[in-house]
Amino acid sequence: MRLCRFGAGRLGVVDGDSVRDVTAALDALPCYRYPLPCADVFIAHLEALAPRIRVLAASAPALPLAGLTLLSPVANPGKLIAAPVNYQKHLDEVRADPNLHHQAPIPVIQRAGLFLKATSSLAGPGEGIALRKLDRRNDHEVELACVIGRRASHVSRDRALEHVAGYTIGLDITIRGPEERSLRKSPDTYSILGPWLVTPDEIDDPGQLGIRLSVNGSLRQSSNTSDLLLGIPELIEYASSFYTLAPGDVIFSGTPEGVGPIRPGDVITAAIDGIGAMEVRVRAA
C-alpha cells in the first residue's frame, strides 16, 4: 500500500493519480490520556489497521491527487535519525569542498556515527521549505527514509527489515556552517518526508533503488541506494545498538553526491524508484 496524509490530517490510500480517503480507519485506534505514548500511534497499529484500510479503500470516493496538500506520512515520530556521509562520492565531495567541511575533519560514517534532527523540523511536500539564514548557503540532500514499525533494540542486521513499517523520500535540508550538524539541520521544515509511505511488500530490496533530485528542472543528484556505505539493515542495527527505536521513528539513510544550494522561489523534484516523486517549493521563512 501507499499511504498518505493530506489536508487537515486525513488518511488516504494512493491509487494511481487518485487518493481514496480512508480516514474512518483511524476510529479504530485506541484512545490515550496524558502522558501520551512515545511513538506514532498510527504506525504502531498499522499492521492491525491494514485490513480495515483496504476494505474502506475499495469503496471510498477517488480524490484527484494533484489537488491535495500532502503532509508528512508520519505525524508523530519520536526520533528523526540521520546518517552523515553515507555515500563514498558524497564523502569525497564534502572533504574536497571548504564550503561543505568548514575546516572540520570529516570522518567515515563508522566513526562519525549518526545524529538526531529535531522532530519540529518535520514537514510534508505540500507544506514546502521555509529557508532561514539566507545570508548563508542552504543545501538540498535527497535520501531514502525508513520508518520503523515495531519496537527495536539491539536488532541484528539479519532481522532489521522485520521492524520496518515502510519507506518514503526524505529531504534533509542543511544550513552550511561550522556549528554542530543537528543545529544546522533542524529549523522548521528542514526535514521533508513524502509524498507517501510505501509498505515493505512493494519494495523488494531497499538497497537497489535509483534516487534523483532536480532543482527547477535541472538534475543535481542521481545515484542508487546500492552505493550506500551502510544500508538500511546496517543502519537499523547501528541505531538500535544505542537506543530503542519506536514505531514512527524515521531513519534518513544519507545523501549521494551532488548536494547544492537552494533559494527562495526554487522548486525541488525528488524521486526514488519504487516510491514515486514529490515536488517541494522553497520560500523564505
Structure in words:
The chain has 285 residues and is α+β, with helices and mostly antiparallel strands. The chain folds into two domains: 2-71, no CATH class; 80-284, Fumarylacetoacetase-like, C-terminal domain (Fumarylacetoacetate hydrolase, domain 2, Alpha-Beta Complex). The protein is built from seven helices and 20 strands. It has helices spanning 41-44, 46-59, 88-96, 98-101, 109-112, 181-184, 232-242, and strands at residues 2-6, 10-15, 18-21, 62-64, 70-71, 80-82, 115-117, 122-123, 129-131, 138-140, 142-148, 164-172, 174-175, 191-198, 210-215, 218-224, 250-252, 260-261, 267-272, 276-284. Strands 1, 2, 3, 4, 5, 6, 7, 8, 11, 12, 14 and 17 form a twelve-stranded mixed beta sheet that branches. A five-stranded mixed beta sheet has the order 9-20-19-15-16, with no helix packed on it. A three-stranded antiparallel beta sheet has the order 13-10-18, with no helix packed on it. A hairpin with a 2-residue loop joins strand 15 and strand 16. The protein is globular. The two termini are 34 Å apart. 44% of the residues are buried.
